[in-house]
Design a protein that fits this description.
By secondary structure, the protein is mostly helical. The protein has helices at 3-22, 27-47, 49-52, 59-74, 83-94, 101-114, 117-137, 145-226, 232-261, 284-293.
Length: 311
């Protein structure tokens, strides 16, 4: 991955993170936060049981440590807005406090979920330093230094690893949703283009039919103009043909305009193209007869028999 791609990826992730921060707290967020605070308090009480029963710890120190844990649990309400700052403060407090352990793990998990990998790496480095410093400042009565460091490393790596897994899953689902939306939009554009091309093709074909109708009008009008000696019956027949051709031409023109004006949603729900209003091969004998009535000499050769007319 090039540096520009990495920068675009980082900016996209940052935009998504800021978008999450700006969103209002939902009912699900409230439930998750209450559960996280409850689990953090329960973990801190369980993990600090050895300290509470240690006779070498004074009541004042135990009460101060407990109050620090309470404040840390309440501070978890800010974990969505200030996850990095909260994690750093709890890491510093965890050096001298047992009861901050539960809220600290939740804060590290939140950083891994809502922040990019570079930020998680920096916070993870600070957590690693805290893992080595905390047992030296306040050793666990039930564990030696190595055991305390290994247990802290296991808990911290588990919280960060779980958070990164949740983040990667969320990003994957977001990417799949974006791809699905983009594919749907592209499919809609392709369908619109196909329908537009279909309407244009139908309009071109109807233009040819309309030209045929107008040519018949021109032929009959010219015959009436140059045959002044035509009988009333011939004039009436020519006028009837002109009237019929003009009516058909207007009908064809309305169909062409209707096809061109039809919106994309007027196509069938199955995505099929609109009905074709132009004549088919079955209408060929009728067109030939109209031309013959107009005075044209037309010979129809139907070797395939699709038109149903004699040669």
């Amino acid at each position: 991955m090039s540096s520009s791609d990495a920068a675009r990826t980082g900016s996209a992730e940052g935009a998504r993170d800021s978008k999450r921060v700006r969103t209002r707290r939902t009912l699900r967020d409230w439930i998750v936060d209450v559960c996280c605070i409850s689990l953090a308090a329960l973990f801190s009480l369980t993990a600090s049981e050895s300290m509470a029963t240690d006779p070498s710890v004074s009541d004042e120190a135990l009460f101060a440590d407990l109050m620090a844990g309470v404040v840390a649990c309440l501070a978890l309400w800010l974990r969505r807005r200030r996850p990095v700052e909260l994690a750093l403060v709890l890491l510093a407090a965890g050096v001298v406090s047992y009861y901050v352990a539960g809220p600290l793990l939740v804060a590290l998990f939140t950083v891994a979920v809502h922040r990019p990998l570079r930020t998680v790496a920096w916070v993870g480095g600070a957590a690693l330093a805290q893992i080595f410093a905390a047992p030296a400042v306040h050793p666990d009565p039930d564990l030696d230094y190595i055991g305390d460091v290994l247990l802290g490393a296991l808990l911290v790596s588990g919280a960060i690893g779980w958070g990164m897994f949740v983040r990667s899953r969320r990003l994957l689902l977001e990417s799949l949703r974006e791809r699905a939306a983009r594919a749907e939009a592209e499919a809609a554009l392709r369908a619109e283009r196909t329908q537009r091309l279909t309407r244009e093709r139908i309009a071109r074909e109807m233009h040819d039919v309309l030209a045929h109708r107008l040519s018949l009008l021109s032929v009959h009008a010219g015959a009436l103009e140059y045959r002044a000696d035509a009988s009333p019956q011939e004039v009436a027949e020519a006028a009837g043909v002109i009237r019929s051709s003009a009516h058909q031409a207007l009908q064809d023109l309305r169909e062409v305009i209707g096809v061109l004006r039809a919106p994309d949603s007027d196509a069938t729900a199955e995505g099929s193209p609109p009905d074709r209003p132009q004549p088919t091969l079955a209408d060929l004998p009728r067109l030939v007869e109209e031309s013959r009535r107009a005075g044209m000499r037309v010979t129809l050769s139907d070797e395939a028999g699709v038109a149903g007319a004699d040669a």
